[in-house]
Specification:
Layout lengths: L3 H8 L11 H19 L14 E5 L5 H8 L3 E6 L9 E4 L2 H8 L5 E4 L22 H11 L3 E5 L11 E3 L12 E5 L24 H9 L10 H5 L6 H6 L3 H20 L1
Parallel strand pairs: 1-2, 1-4, 2-3, 4-5
Antiparallel strand pairs: 5-7, 6-7
Helix pairs in contact: 1-2, 2-9, 3-9
Length: about 270
């Protein structure tokens, strides 16, 4: 193999179901592709031709940036949008209604992620309170499809029936000390077959703890919950309590983003 194109098709050839498609696998594919890319472009005069382009990701309902940071690690330039001011968001940020921003700015981005509010779907929200919260998955999907851009919608287990063919990710799949299951609808093929939960270890709790959870941890000498657990549990070290309460571990979207970047590169190379 001599070209980045040839490497990419060879790496993704054959039966992917026989391979261990972990986060490490997708990183290795991207790293090796980058080597071929840089080699191909090393003789070109302009520096920008030798730097792999970073696609642009729009991160809707961004909170303090759990999803956005994962896409950044996967090689995207990320812009966040939230109706609330998010001073801890680590990238370019716009305070705006997410759906209105999407309507007016979708053409500026290569990929769109949305994590609409989960309270209306969550099993933790009392049934007699769920009517207080907007359920935005359907409306968001309509707008995303209209853009023609690849997209991802993320939400909690209670929203599973509202998502189309969702795939589940768990922190234990990435060596994190959390079992925070989240479901992802994607407009592209997302391969998760090699990813299995490992609930052998007692998870570290960060912002919530039931009575049973508190009692269990007390018996084994663990703190019931503390934001100090966030780095080990979520891979997050910049958020406050409010951000952590609604965040997903960046490893989830890093995993998704790497697969999407490779799909985008494959499309360009075809």
């Amino acid at each position: 193999m001599e070209t980045a194109k040839e490497y990419l098709f060879a790496a993704l050839g054959g039966n992917l179901n026989t391979k261990s498609l972990t986060l490490r696998f997708w990183h290795e594919v991207m790293e090796n592709y980058a080597k071929y890319y840089h080699k191909e472009n090393s003789s070109k005069c302009q520096m920008q031709t030798r730097v792999m382009p970073r696609p642009k990701c729009l991160d809707l309902f961004c909170g303090q940036g759990g999803a956005g940071f994962g896409y950044y690690k996967a090689g995207f330039d990320v812009t966040g949008v939230d109706v609330l001011q998010q001073d801890k968001y680590p990238f370019e940020f716009h305070k705006s209604d997410a759906l209105e921003f999407l309507k007016n700015n979708a053409d500026k981005y290569d990929f769109i992620h949305g994590s609409p509010p989960c309270q209306g779907y969550s099993h933790l929200t009392p049934k007699d309170h769920k009517h207080k919260y907007d359920k935005l998955i359907y409306d968001l999907r309509i707008l995303l499809i209209e853009t023609g851009k690849p997209y991802c919608i993320e939400n909690v287990a209670g929203a599973k029936s509202e998502l189309k063919n969702p795939k589940m990710l768990c922190g234990s799949m990435f060596g994190l000390r959390t079992q925070r299951h989240r479901f992802f609808e994607t407009s592209f093929v997302l391969n998760v077959e090699s990813m299995k939960c490992n609930h052998f270890e007692i998870p570290l709790l960060v912002t919530t703890a039931s009575k049973a959870s508190r009692e269990l941890r007390k018996r084994v000498g663990m703190q019931p919950k503390t934001v100090k657990n966030a780095p080990l549990a979520y891979g997050i070290d910049w958020m406050d309590f409010n951000g952590l309460k609604e965040s997903i571990p960046p490893a989830y979207t890093e995993f998704i983003g790497l697969q999407l970047r490779i799909l985008l590169l494959t499309h360009r190379a075809a």
